[in-house]
Design a protein that fits this description.
7 helices; 5-stranded mixed β-sheet; about 220 residues; alpha/beta; Purple Acid Phosphatase, chain A, domain 2
């Protein structure tokens, strides 16, 4: 059984379309660990496209929770501004309300993150008190680490990589071979910028992306 696991799409439809083209007819199940929505201009379209996949498991991220609560509960001004731009245009509430919280696959529990924390490549994993294996996202940094015999894999971000904004990350989990493979590709992030400009996103949002490094 070959499973695509991805997340943190954040409205980046070109990146989602590209991964589905790359892996076309080459997976048995797709699992998204959340944050399909917000930031880039295609939140509705990303939700709709994921819903067309026959074999899928869709999980909530913090941004789906924000949308369902109709409120951004953080304090980051950039995130608040993106929310103020994107949320009023969102319509697919009936779809995201059915997203699950967690999913068990093979030896792993898949969810958006652990204890609502941002888990980075250098996070002290002892503080998380891991008692099982996890596949997560949320921090947008890809890594594969083990602590006290428990493995934690962060898939990185499909739509908003923190290191290189035009790099998309996901993993393939082959249950038959018990093997996890990290995958990445370059997405055309200029398409995101062009659409944001056409929709007259605030300068704060545009600069947030324009100032990011590219691979």
């Amino acid at each position: 059984m070959r499973v695509i696991i991805l997340g943190d799409i954040h409205g980046n439809l070109p990146a989602l379309e590209k991964v589905l083209k790359i892996e076309h007819n080459n997976f048995d199940l797709l699992v998204c660990h959340g944050d399909v929505v917000n930031y880039a201009p295609w939140s509705n379209e990303c939700v709709q496209l994921l819903d067309t996949i026959d074999n899928k498991v869709l999980l909530k991220g913090n941004h789906e929770v924000n949308y369902l609560n109709k409120n951004y509960k953080g304090t980051h001004i950039v995130a608040q501004t993106f929310f103020d731009v994107c949320f009023p245009k969102f319509k697919e509430f009936d779809r995201i309300k059915d997203y699950k919280e967690t999913y068990t696959l093979g030896d792993f529990t898949i969810q958006h993150t652990i204890n609502d924390q941002y888990v980075y490549p250098d996070t002290d994993l002892q503080e998380l008190n891991l008692n099982k294996n996890y596949i997560i996202g949320h921090s947008h940094y890809a890594f594969d680490r083990t602590e006290n015999g428990n493995r934690i894999i962060n898939t990185g971000s499909l739509g908003q990589n923190r290191v290189f904004i035009n790099e998309s990350n996901y993993i393939i989990y082959d249950l038959d071979k018990e093997k996890v493979q990290k995958k990445d590709f370059i997405n055309n992030f200029d398409l995101v910028i062009e659409k944001m400009k056409a929709l007259k996103y605030p300068e704060l949002c545009l600069n947030y992306y324009l100032n990011k490094k590219r691979r």
